[in-house]
Design a protein that fits this description.
Elements: H1 11-34, E1 40-44, H2 49-56, E2 65-71, H3 76-79, E3 81-85, E4 88-92, H4 117-125, E5 128-133, H5 135-149, H6 155-163, E6 172-174, H7 184-189
Parallel strand pairs: 1-2, 1-6, 2-5
Antiparallel strand pairs: 3-4
Helix pairs in contact: 1-2, 5-6
Length: 190
């Protein structure tokens, strides 16, 4: 079993339920601090575990836009096709013969050629939308957050941060999915 929301049932549901604590606690905290729900919730998506957990707290709120950000070189929701990968039908990077294609991201956590099936459903139903960020955009967002807030984000989360300025919203909730000290060698070597 891996930590992402991929694979055959019941693994995607198990991971979503375990990660949903992030969405529920974020919902409670933003209501307590801001007195209202955010306009947008945005999170990075590789296999999709942190995003599906964050989104779980807001799925029943149609006024909250859900945005997932994939790595441009691993955008299975943006450029993939329906296929079975690791025992689940979802959106997968594949060539014209249906063979799984290579994925690329500066972030090892987003370097996956598929995505959890619930994300494909959310995309297809229109409940969430998915966009991409390049390696360079993620690095710029990584540096900006470190410089302006003193927070070193994970490179995964930096992809979501790279799309924040594109949003036409007053109150945006960003899921920072992990700490960035593990990524410093990659960032410094880029």
């Amino acid at each position: 079993m891996i930590g992402s929301c991929v694979g055959p049932a019941p693994y995607p549901e198990l991971v979503r339920e375990l990660q949903a604590v992030v969405g529920r606690e974020s919902r409670e905290q933003i209501l307590a601090i801001e007195g209202r729900l955010p306009d947008v919730v945005i999170a990075c998506v590789g296999g999709g575990s942190n995003a599906i957990g964050m989104f779980a707290g807001f799925l029943d709120d149609p006024g909250v836009e859900l945005v997932g950000v994939e790595a441009a070189g691993a955008a299975s929701l943006g450029t993939g096709r329906a296929a079975v990968l690791h025992g689940a039908r979802s959106s997968v990077l594949a060539d014209e013969d249906g063979q799984v294609a290579d994925a690329h991201s500066i972030s090892a956590g987003l370097d996956y050629p598929g995505v959890g099936p619930e994300h494909a459903f959310l995309r297809d139903s229109g409940r969430a939308r998915y966009v991409a960020a390049t390696d360079d955009e993620a690095l710029a967002a990584f540096h900006r957050l470190a410089r302006t807030e003193g927070i070193i984000p994970a490179l995964e989360s930096a992809h979501a941060l790279a799309r924040v300025d594109d949003l036409d919203a007053e109150l945006i909730l960003v899921c920072l999915s992990g700490r960035g000290d593990k990524d410093l060698a990659t960032v410094l070597g880029w």
